[in-house]
Amino acid sequence: MVRQNLIIAGVVVAAVWLVFLFQLIWPGLIQYGIQPRQLVGLTGLVASPFLHGGWRHIMANTLPLFILLFLALSFSRNLTVEALVIILLGGGGLVWLTGRSHTVHVGASGVIFGLLGFLIFGGLFRRDLKALGLALLVLFLYGGVIISGFIPAFGVSWSSHFFGFVAGLGAAWLARREKAE
């Protein structure tokens, strides 16, 4: 099971990198990120986590995405899949609704913050030792990142961070009574 979860997380991260490499050849792919209140921007709800603004951007997202996805899958694959759908559509949808006009939001950080919210609050809402232990581990590893990720900075979509986190919290709440498999 651990090996399979490592492979799944690795395949997802490899797909993000593959799209990034295509982006280097076709820079116009960036337009498929979330463009607030633009119909074409709705494609970004699914596409934006695979698109990145440059080498530093993708490098900053690679390890946290891999680790958090692995941890979430290790907790429960079925709940992680449900959480990812909520994070992509809910968190991305809120960015689409409320983001600054004439911007394009790209990167996996919305998913990363969503997984943080899902894992932390999943532990609190479920009140089981495995979930709580995982929540404490995630808080220990990424607690400072959560706080700094909500501070607006030039060129950084803090709204993707915030709404991803909120969507992850919502996913944890919805899954609080579901069986973790």
Characteristics:
181 residues, mainly alpha, globular
Question: Strands, helices and their partners?
Answer:
Layout lengths: L1 H24 L18 H4 L7 H21 L1 H22 L10 H18 L2 H21 L8 H17 L7
Provide the succession of SSEs: HHHHHHH
Cα distance, first to last residue? 11 Å
Distinct helical segment count? 7
Main beta sheet strand tally, sense and closure: none
Gyration radius, to the nearest Å? 15 Å
What is the approximate shape? Answer: globular
Helical/strand content category? mainly alpha
Residue windows where pLDDT falls under 50 for at least 5 positions: none
Provide a descriptive summary of the structure in words:
Helix content is 70%, strand content 0%. The chain is mainly alpha-helical and 181 residues long. The longest helix is centred in the N-terminal third of the chain and has 24 residues, at 2-25. The chain is globular, with a radius of gyration of 15 Å. The N and C termini lie close together (11 Å). The mean pLDDT is 92.
